[in-house]
Amino acid sequence: MNRLRGKVAIVTGGATGIGEAIVKKFAKEGAKVVVNGFPEDPVMDVVNEITSGGYDAIGFMGDVSEEGNAMACVQFAVETYGKLDILINNAGVFPVMEMIENYPTKAFEYMMKNNVRTAFLMTKYAIPELQKTKGCIISAGSEAGKIGLGENAVYGGTKGFIHSFTRGIAVEQAKYGIRANCVCPGAIDTAWTHKETGPMKKKHETMIVEGTPLGRRGTPEEIANAYLFLASDEASYITGTLMMVDGGITIGKGAIGKEAEKDTKREPSGELLLRHKKEGATDMLRGEDGNV
Ligand SMILES: NC(=O)c1ccc[n+]([C@@H]2O[C@H](COP(=O)([O-])OP(=O)(O)OC[C@H]3O[C@@H](n4cnc5c(N)ncnc54)[C@H](O)[C@@H]3O)[C@@H](O)[C@H]2O)c1
């Protein structure tokens, strides 16, 4: 408890999946949290759950790949809470699994907009405020940005951008006391990795689970725990790191997850109630009307 007491955080894409776990974890740890999402995301449901539990959060609905919305989101945090200590670039989309020769150009552009442009704009407008607080930025990387993801080379490419962008920011902003890091999840139990709720087919689900030495998906809360550590003062000497939180999938070879024992394959229950973890952005309809 209270590892983020007095800190003000913005979490983009904070109403579903991993983002929902981050905002709930951060609020429990004493942060004041600005929950951002598209207007059609369950932003206010999440905010209301947090505030009814006696914690502090406020919603900012808007597509932060739009320059005006990114600027307004940072202003809103500062006007509401007086400062900004932590920016979490978590927003992202995962609409298609397809070989490159058939990959829709529209999906490429949709991912550049929501996975890359969001992080660039939010970082650009948050930096002046983070310089005042010696704050930090943590962005959503991915094992797919390290090793490549077949049938979604484009998604992996957007995460490769996030990795090196983060490292560039870490180097140039270190003199102001700003830290910048990535959390790089493996396959996480959100809408994206289930055939019923996302673009993965059965064969992809089998591949990601069997390819993970721990033999299962990670939970959104397991990822939020890594964000919490990197956002906390315990990580005060860590900058420019790509923290793999991937059950070993990046280092595993072959179907090694099949060997995991039954108990190992069981997801930990965690402490958070996550109502919206399967309502993520897995088609290209989300954010069509993205203004505040
Ligand atoms: N789920 C996984 O297996 C996995 C693995 C590695 C990395 N990640 C990364 O973690 C992050 C969260 O993924 P998730 O699985 O929780 O997915 P998710 O779809 O549940 O969460 C992403 C959220 O971002 C929002 N969003 C997207 N673009 C936005 C924009 N322009 N403005 C405002 N909100 C926007 C979406 O509406 C959605 O609520 C992503 O960046 C993803 O790349 C996920």
Structural domain count:
1
The CATH superfamily is: NAD(P)-binding Rossmann-like Domain
How many beta strands in the DSSP annotation?
7
Distance between the termini: 33 Å
Proportion of residues in extended strands: 5-15%
The CATH architecture would be 3-Layer(aba) Sandwich
Tell me what you see in this structure:
This is NAD(P)-dependent dehydrogenase, short-chain alcohol dehydrogenase family. This protein is of the alpha/beta class. The chain has one domain (8-188, 219-247): Rossmann fold. The chain is built from 8 helices and 7 strands, in the order βαβαβαβαβααβααβ. It has helices spanning 17-28, 43-52, 67-81, 105-133, 144-147, 153-173, 202-210, 220-231; strands at residues 8-11, 32-37, 56-61, 86-89, 136-140, 179-185, 242-245. A 7-stranded parallel β-sheet has the order 3-2-1-4-5-6-7, sandwiched between helices. α1 (17-28) crosses α8 (220-231), α3 runs parallel beside α4 and α4 (105-133) runs parallel beside α6 (153-173). The protein is globular. The mean pLDDT is 96. The site of nicotinamide-adenine-dinucleotide has 33 residues, from α1, β2 and α4.
